[in-house]
Amino acid sequence: MELGKVTALMKATALEIAILTGHLVLYPSGIVAERLSPAKTPAKTPTTTPAKTPATTPTTAAAEPPAPPTPLAQGTRPVVLLHGFVDNRSVFVLLRRSLLRNGRDCVESLNYSPLTCDLRAAAELLGRRVDEIRTRTGHEEVDIVGHSLGGLIARYYVQRLGGDTRVRTLVMLGTPHAGTRVAPLADAHPLVRQMRPGSEVLRELAGPAPGCRTRFVSFWSDLDQVMVPVETASLDHPDLLVHNVRVSGIGHLALPVHPTVAAGVREALDAGGPAVSGTREEGPGATSVA
């Protein structure tokens, strides 16, 4: 291995250890579900007191029909953050802060149970949460950012459970789209088996998805040692609108933390327009953070 690659790997590993240490400190704070954002309320319109009608004047006019309800949706689309395997919402502390400081007024994290043994069940839970957020905020669509397994869960919801009618942009950070071979001894856990190449879940996701409306943006790192091989985090599907972003110089845990990636996530969300069926965005999309 070349000296430059060795140096980059050592820097990335040191950063991963530092991030892991900090995350272990924050982890307990993310176990409890967060408080939900309050529902949007329609702005009050000024009212005037009607003039009194003289008693001698008959009131034969029919009552006016009620005014149509004021739309509740305001501001930008809500963003849902979905963590990875054996993790919780605390992994998104910095990314959440970055989104809120840069114009996103509704950012919420979803914790799925650490006892979850089926990716499909977590996707169904995500769907219920998305519907609840849409009802509460008045927005027809949301954006989702998923880290690692969280991206795969969100992708299953979008592709297989009709979530493409509710999710405008799905951003995935270090997600094993084609499966990862890391830690073979972890196959005892059902979720890990579902992330292996050739699993039933991955075969479902590789199947046809005609007319899928959601825009997919997948960040993958050349030094991600959890994605084996690293290219597995690059999404390739003929029916999906996809933009892959290659990141250099950081590992798996740094993806939801690094400020350069956070800037890329914001850009991806802000650029999310209507998807055009049957087209894909290509190009290297490389971002160096070394």
Structure description:
By secondary structure, this protein is α/β, with parallel strands linked by helices. 30% of the residues lie in helices and 13% in strands. The chain contains 7 helices and 7 strands. The protein has a 7-stranded parallel β-sheet with strand order 2-1-3-4-5-6-7, with helices on both faces. Helix 4 (149-160) links the parallel strand 3 (142-147) and strand 4. The model is unreliable at 41-64, 66-72 and 273-285 (pLDDT under 50).
Report the major sheet: 7 strands, parallel
Total helices: the number is 7
Q: Averaging pLDDT over every residue, what do you get? A: 85
Approximate shape: globular
Jot down its keywords.
7-stranded parallel sheet; single chain; 7 helices; alpha/beta; 290 residues
In short:
With 290 residues, this protein is an alpha/beta fold. The chain has helices spanning 3-26, 93-101, 119-137, 149-160, 190-194, 200-206, 259-270; strands spanning 79-82, 107-110, 142-147, 167-173, 215-221, 241-248, 287-288.
Topology:
Elements: H1 3-26, E1 79-82, H2 93-101, E2 107-110, H3 119-137, E3 142-147, H4 149-160, E4 167-173, H5 190-194, H6 200-206, E5 215-221, E6 241-248, H7 259-270, E7 287-288
Parallel strand pairs: 1-2, 1-3, 3-4, 4-5, 5-6, 6-7
Helix pairs in contact: 2-7, 3-4
